[in-house]
Amino acid sequence: MSSLNRASLIGNLGADPEIRRTGAGAKVASLRIATSESWKDKASGERKERTEWHSVVIFNENLAEIAEKYLRKGSKVFVEGQIQTRKWQANDGSDRWSTEIVLRGFAGQIVMLGQRGDRPPPASEDDYGAARTSTQSAAAPASGGGTYRDPMDDDIPFAPEVR
């Protein structure tokens, strides 16, 4: 029997990414993403909204680097990873559990959504010029490869002209 552990979210960051390093020195990023739904209450006719907060942890060093450089509070993002629950002990000794969306290795993806002008500025003025060219976008493959192309800048194949 097969199984699948996959989570996809589109939402907004509630805070700037939190960056830390593992004991081995690898970069790890933590994000808090808000997803919202709204509806019209049938009984009152009133507009209602519910927001869910999701914890996302990025163990892929290249994706963590992108998150650090380009994501800011309010950024709209698409993330895809695996759901993972971990157990930890609180200061009072009681057991606690946290459920997170985890992006590691090739099993995760981040895509920055929205117009380029909608994105918050990078950590420093040099970051855009040094890290990206005009044909690169914020879409980051799970492999963490070096070049990210804007899907709208792709060459669209057309049929040869018929005479």
TrEMBL record:
Residues 114-163 are annotated as: Disordered. The keyword Secreted does not apply. GO terms for molecular function: DNA binding. The keyword Acyltransferase does not apply. Gene3D superfamilies: Nucleic acid-binding proteins (2.40.50.140). Residues 53-59 bind DNA. It comes from the Bacteria. Keywords: DNA recombination, DNA-binding. InterPro entries: NA-bd_OB-fold (IPR012340), Primosome_PriB/ssb (IPR000424), ssDNA-bd (IPR011344). It holds the Pfam family SSB. Homotetramer. This is Single-stranded DNA-binding protein. It comes from Methylopila musalis. The lineage of its organism: Bacteria, Pseudomonadati, Pseudomonadota, Alphaproteobacteria, Hyphomicrobiales. The gene is ssb.
